[in-house]
Design brief:
Chain lengths: 101, 429
């Protein structure tokens, strides 16, 4: 895996300066992480340094940009809200990962 | 073990299917809705009982599936009103209808899940075993219904319409609609506009009541209707062809701004630039409430039409999948969605009870429409049209076949003659 920089990037260059393996460079519109160089800061820092330093939370794990965006948008990916007459009041949240029959 | 029906999509079709499934005796009915509330486009709709929809509605009452139609009647702002091309219409209040429908479903034992967008389906041995939600929850069932409609995702409007216009479907926030039928790998059909491009644009916008003049507001609230003539340079008859709702593709709608009182002010045109609208007397300060960018466009619909039989069972390699609503064909409108959804929900329960599914006869408007539209959809020409009980080609057919009437007793009689009185209120398991 590697980290990536989303379109939230404001071109501040903080991540480029902090990256322990020089994986980050300025590109046309924003800074970009070279996924072949990025090591997720393993062996360097407990938390990815770019993520730690980014002022706008634009540095995210590569496979999670979608979840990252989703979390920022209302309840996307949140738990279903269940309305039914019996049981608890309408709107209870039921953390049933698998609703088996 | 009890039987569970899982319905994907909580619009009018899904809500009707859920209720029908409970009335037919399903132990457990789970209605999955992607957004925070039921009814989908029904949240900004409102027109009921106009023209042939009256006959279809009364057929539903006679067949024992009048519950949600009664909810609409009980929440009507205007009844028995006329507007161009349309008689004896009722208009439900868009602010009151959703909680009323939700209550009706809950009273009948339907379990409603909101924030429950499906993203995947699990299939084994030719049956759907479960649907997977974006939250990671997995919902198993005995039979499934696709009532996801045909609006969205955003790319549909970007590619075939005038871009995302921020309509009530709210794809960016709640995530795009996922077609259950499509997720099963079943090929779906696409409706076309008369000019040959994909889909069709929703036919009306909503304006904020607070922003129209006192005179227009007074007339609207008293009669339900207000018409403001358009100056000659603003008349655009070409736009009529792009509408989803062919029943409103009449010249009165091109030459006037036609406004109906649904709680919002329903503007009967797919879109109109705000600066033009604001040139009209009484609308100088008007603004849109749905879609927010009604100035430039409207939501696109009618991709993803499921191949189905006349019992609403989806044709293909899955044996426990039914559909309803816009999914079920180019049948436009709330009444049409409620009718196909009800039949789908009812037949889904028959299927899990091991009974043969039921097809409604040609002697009823509903049965005739369901069969006729399926046949029409099999032709290229047919895919370019829209069908509704309330106007255009299907209403003409209804009149030709003597299926249009406002005589409630006559409708009860024909339902009784077909042996279908109370059909949907009888348990099948």
């Amino acid at each position: 895996m590697s980290y990536m920089i989303t379109a939230e990037c404001v071109n501040c260059s903080a991540c480029e300066r902090e990256c322990p393996v020089q994986a980050i460079t300025a590109q046309a519109d924003q800074y970009v992480i070279d996924e072949d160089i990025c090591v997720d800061c393993e062996g360097y820092f407990a938390e990815a340094r770019c993520k730690w330093t980014c002022p706008v939370n634009a540095c995210v794990p590569q496979r999670e940009p979608y979840q990252f965006k989703a979390a920022a948008m209302a309840n996307r990916g949140g738990q279903p809200v269940i309305y039914k007459q019996s049981g608890n009041a309408a709107g209870e949240r039921v953390p049933a990962k698998i609703l088996s029959k | 073990m009890g039987k569970r029906v899982v319905i994907v999509g909580g619009g009018w079709a899904g809500s009707s299917a859920a209720l029908a499934a409970r009335l037919a005796g399903a132990d457990e009915v789970i209605l999955l809705e992607r957004t925070d509330s039921l009814l989908g486009t029904g949240l900004v709709g409102g027109i009921m009982r106009n023209n042939g929809r009256f006959s279809a509605t009364e057929e539903m009452f006679a067949m024992g599936a009048g519950h949600l139609f009664k909810v609409c009647d009980d929440n009507s702002r205007h009844v028995n009103m006329e507007f161009p091309g349309h008689k004896h219409a009722s208009i439900y209040d868009v602010a009151k209808i959703e909680p009323a429908v939700r209550r009706c479903l809950m009273e009948n034992g339907v379990e409603i899940w909101t924030f429950s967008r499906i993203i995947d389906v699990e299939i084994g041995n030719g049956s759907i075993n479960a649907v997977v939600l974006e939250s990671g929850d997995r919902v198993e069932g005995d039979v499934f219904l696709d009532t996801t409609g045909t609006c969205g995702a955003q790319t549909l409007c970007t590619d075939n319409g005038n871009g995302c216009v921020m309509c009530v479907i709210r794809c960016p926030t709640f995530g795009p609609r996922v077609s259950l039928v499509g997720a099963c790998g079943i090929k779906e059909k696409t409706g076309r506009k008369p000019n040959g491009t994909l889909g069709a644009m929703s036919g009306s916008c909503k304006l904020s009541k607070e922003t129209i003049s006192a005179e227009i507001l007074e007339q609207l609230e008293r009669t339900g209707l207000a018409m403001v003539p358009l100056p000659a340079h603003m008349i655009d008859t070409d736009k009529l062809g792009s509408k989803a709702c062919a029943q409103y593709a009449l010249k009165e709608y091109a030459e006037n701004v036609v406004l109906l009182d649904t709680g919002h002010v329903k503007l009967m045109t797919p879109f109109l630039p705000l600066h033009q609208l604001q040139q009209l007397p009484g609308l100088e300060e008007v603004r849109y409430v749905d879609p927010y960018a009604g100035t430039l466009g409207n939501s696109m619909r009618f991709t993803d039409l499921s191949p189905r039989d006349d019992a609403m069972q989806v044709e293909g390699h899955i044996d426990n999948l039914f559909c309803g609503g816009e999914k079920a064909g180019l049948l436009v409108g709330h009444t049409e969605a409620m009718v196909t959804g009800t039949l789908g929900g009812y037949n889904a329960v028959r299927a899990i009870a091991g009974k043969e599914t039921i097809v409604l006869p040609h002697t009823l408007a509903i049965g005739d429409a369901i069969t006729n539209v399926r046949e029409e959809m099999e032709t290229e020409e047919g895919l370019g049209k829209k069908y509704t009980f309330s106007g255009s080609v299907y209403f003409n057919r209804m009149r030709d076949k003597g299926l249009y009437t406002t005589d409630v007793d006559a409708i009860k009689k024909r339902v009784s003659k077909a042996g279908l009185t109370g059909l949907f209120s009888q348990k099948v398991i």
